[in-house]
Design a protein that fits this description.
The protein is mainly beta and 171 residues long. It is 12% helix and 42% strand. The chain has one helix and nine strands, in the order H-E-E-E-E-E-E-E-E-E. The strands form two sheets. The protein has a five-stranded mixed β-sheet, with no helix packed on it. The chain has a four-stranded antiparallel β-sheet with strand order 3-4-5-6, with no helix packed on it. Strand 3 and strand 4 form a beta hairpin. The termini are far apart.
Length: 171
Amino acid sequence: MFRWMLVVFVVSVAVWCVADDAGKRVYSESFKKGATRVTEQTLDVTLTPDHARQDFRVLDSLGKPRYTLRFVPDIQAGDTKILGWFVRLADARHKIYDSVLPASQDLARDPQQFWWLDARQYSKTLLQAQRVFKVEQFYCVIQVKDAKRLAPGQPYLNRMNVAVQFTNAKP
């Protein structure tokens, strides 16, 4: 009996450690393929209810505007409180796409939801996970550095600090 308990304990700790390591960085590739490289930049973004929707221009390697990085608040219908933020990367030349980041049309069926900075307790991707997106020939790296809630134990956010990096080298 003791051996089985020991085996179950060791296996559960091993699974927990692998899940913890896997949650630190997630990787996804965009459907958008091409030769575009960007002007490398790092952004420190502070999202609050007063500045909930923010846009940032991303320049190509020639210095021309090519993409717009957009943070859109996740607010439930009939409510005013923010649960998280959706991350969008819009191509200035192909406005037919809301975002070139990998996403499913049906939120419930998307197994990963890397593009959603979801602060709820049981989000599909950990809030603090580093999100690495490959788009064309560059990478967009997003990581939540800090999130403050309206009140302890509530899912609603008062502030979120996010680090964003655009780079041409694999992070």
